[in-house]
Amino acid sequence: MLNKKILAITAACLIPLQFAGCGGTKINNSDVTIHWYMPKPIDNIKDQENVEGFANKTFKEKVGASLKFHFIDRAAWEEKMNVMVASGEEYDLVNTSSTTNKFNVNVQRGAFADIKEYLSQYGPDIMAKVDPKAWPSVTLGGQILAVPGQNPYAIPAVMVFKKEFTDKYKFDFKNVKSLADLEPYLETIKKNEPGITPLLSIATNSVSNAPVNKYIDITTGVVYDEEKGKMVFIMDCPETLNSYKLSAKYYQKGYIAKDAATKQDYLAEAKSGKYAVLPDTGAYSEDGSKSSGVYGYPCGETLLGYLPVTTQSMMACMTAVSSTSKHPDKAVELLNLIWKDRFLSNTLAYGIEGVNYEVKSGKGTDNISVIPKSGKEQTWGIWHNWLGPLWEQWDSPWNSTESLVQMQKNNETAKVSDILGFMLDVEPIKNEIAQISAVNKESSSVFATGSAPDVEQYIETIRQKYKEAGIEKVLAEAQAQLDNWKKNK
Amino acid sequence: MKSSVSVTKKEKKGIRGEWSRFVKNFPLTFLALPGIIVLFIFNYIPLYGLILPFKNYRFNLGFWNSPWVGFTNFKFLFTGQTILNATRNTVVYNLIFIFLGTALSILLALMLFELKKRSVKVYQTIIFLPYFVSWVVAAFIFRALLDMDYGILNKFLVAIGKEPVMWYNDPKYWPIILILANFWKGLGYSSVIYYASLMGINKEYFEAAKIDGAGKFVQIWYISVPLIKPIIIITILLNVGRIFYGDFGLFYNVPLNSSLLLSTTDVIDTFVYRSLIDLGDIGMASAAGFYQSVVGFILVILSNYIVKKIDSEYVLF
């Protein structure tokens, strides 16, 4: 009886509310909601309503629209966006890059809207703050198809060490410069630490070797050799083959897990703490704070070098407007406000003061220093470069002001690839690329984990498979496109 | 019965005859209506999608305005050794699943049929249970057996002083593992179909045979098997139509997507997945589906035709 009564009362309350809702929107005309899709930045997001509600006060007042984030689990991200695009679902903003929710693929299938006009009308701050070098990589045929976020272009190649073991065995990890340097350490761990796998290399991620700066990734199976000035097949690069052989040696010696090639979830493996040497977290910190934070135990890091700046590295974090968006103008205007208003972008990134972060110094000014909650207490967080304006970030353990300045300096001085701005059009070689992707998917996890029983023979098998898949045609096409590009440069 | 009524009025021909038959049988047709509607919505309306494999599908141009590209989307299905290998695997595995699987499930059904009512329930439940386990979960059950460090089988091998086997690195074991996995999961379900049709056989046949002194095997061979022959042929024909479809759940999950095993675990579906997951090209993906169903369609027509030649009583249509 009581339940029924409650139900009736609730229903009675809800009905007028609904009507009120309808009426209100009609008068204010502020029911535009910009839906922004991005991968989940941190696992434990709980304060979405609060942060959005807080930021939306500003958005509603200045843009007349509100913002709603849709965070997609990383594992489902790629597929979710594929399905959304394929089914023509309506959304407004989305994160894209050269590697996830791929910019090229989306552009080729017409998933992104041309925002050139909206930018000139509503995006003055975006135009002023985006690095002019980055625009060519998102401009195709006179159309601007994304907003490139501010980013460190030169991506570091880093090795991560679990502190517990480097301390215990007094291993000077800062002197490690390549995968080969690790051997004695791996041997020590294997001998003395039962239950610990020395090297974390699995199907989806592996400990990186020192970067070979002359090779620029073009597409699956093809790299550009800066010294020779032409496209080469990856299986013809001696450095790559040596790296494969070294991994195979480590696998045979038991430094890599036996079932490494069937393991998928690298972060779960890393967090388990059962490894001594781990892949990087995509960034470098001198004191190891980055990886310690991500993996959840004290780590040390060593810098192997920087990857060369390529078209792809300028496209590491971008925001695009969907071609299904009903309000591309509002979407750009809203994005512009994020680039313009430093308090707003930092609110979206760090959350709300007192709840998600504490102010350390500089309170009341525009340039404050904050301490965001970390570990289990962290219930909100979006990386600044995913939003766009990274250089506007408030000083915090995420990035100190000094390191931000350093990154900007690096961007100016970093070694830039000769073919910066070149992008391969895969349309004429789609059939070959499909075949080659299959070969790559088949072999990459085996090479990375070294789990082939006979690596020399396996290399030959895979080389043959690439040939059958049409690697030569792809090489020739890439070379032709590059020659053409150079001519018109 | 309604159908016999309509047969007696066969002299009325043409549209009027059809109409009066429709009116006569309306209640039956009406009962089938939900099914017909579902079939129409999900199987007939989407047929216009068959033009997708022949287009270079662009989302901004839409379905009708995307450019035609002829057969170029099909090319990747016919070049290279990898797809040949995958096609061979698909067909051979499916042939084994169809013929050996059918034989085993008939055997199982015949054995169930000989059991007492009570114990049948217990056995049926036990062999039916794996059917409800999804392949993703099943993959982990098999992993518990085959894990190279901690698996039950390898622990056992080590305990009796043998070398552990690198199950997930060595393709030569996988034909047997995959076939066993498929039978483990599917036999319970298919044997129930045969068991049900065995239940439908008139008991008098068996009693008469017993009086004439026929043993169990003679009864099975001359009564049970011939009487369920139609259902056997129909299930085989239906399965032949799907001979180009590899069960993605089985072939992708159970080997844990280990690429060292691809020579024996790769089927058309897993190959298409690997090829297109990066490109995300709708035209090429639908070309693969189109190819599979066309081959299946031809094979069904062909095998139906062969059955018709041998004995027209058992044909599907």
Low-confidence stretches of chain B: 1-10
Globally, the shape of chain A reads globular
What radius of gyration of chain A results from the CA coordinates? 25 Å
H/E order of the elements of chain B? HHHHHHHHHHHHHHH
Query: How much beta of chain A, percentage-wise?
Result: 5-15%
Strand content of chain B: under 5%
Quick one: how many beta strands of chain B?
0
Give the CATH H-level superfamily of the largest domain in chain B: MetI-like
Q: What is CATH's topology name of the largest domain in chain B?
A: MetI-like fold
Largest interface: chains, residues each: A-B, 42 and 37 residues
Indicate the overall shape of chain B: flat
How would you name the oligomeric state of the polypeptide chains in this document?
Answer: heterodimer
Question: Tell me, what is the CATH class of the largest domain in chain B?
Answer: Mainly Alpha
In round numbers, the mean pLDDT of chain A is 86
Q: In CATH terms, what is the architecture of the largest domain in chain B?
A: Orthogonal Bundle
**For the terminal residues of chain A, how far apart are their CA atoms?**
79 Å
If helices are DSSP runs of H or I spanning 4 or more residues, what is the number of helices of chain B? 15
Kindly name the structural category of chain A.
alpha+beta
The class by helix and strand makeup of chain B works out as mainly alpha
